[in-house]
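Please describe the entry underneath.
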Amino acid sequence: MREPGQYRDRALAPTTTPDEMRELATSPYPFVWQALATRPDVPADVLGALVHQSDSEWNDNRLLALIARNDQANRSVLLSVLERVQRLLAAGERPYAAGLRLASRSELTVDEVSAMLASPGASRRFRAGLRASLAKRGALIDEGADRSAPSRVPVL
């Protein structure tokens, strides 16, 4: 393959094998990673490899949200996504879509997900969304538990 679009097309092709997906996960193109993350038949180990790919804040956040949304993402993959989301939040980035999707995944415990509430990068709206998602799972999260986290990330 020579053109970037060919990599994307191969990532989306229904005839692409798991081994080809593993190879495509190492490509330098974030749109290929994102295409793989949308596949309903992508192996969990490919999703796990994609968690560690990085390009830009926007592409990284989108990729993490797609992985968190994928039904093939097992507990191990979701824990990796959670760890990366927590690091990004602490760095002042906004992986909110991935964090909110993680809150709805039953493979993760309420305690694991609710740890994001205390992150300095967690906005007030994000924390409210997390509490609402966790409430749908039957968890009651005390709003006072996350008051130590600032509602805004300072702009440098």
User: Anything to note?
Assistant: The longest helix spans residues 75-90. Confidence is low (pLDDT under 50) at residues 147-156.
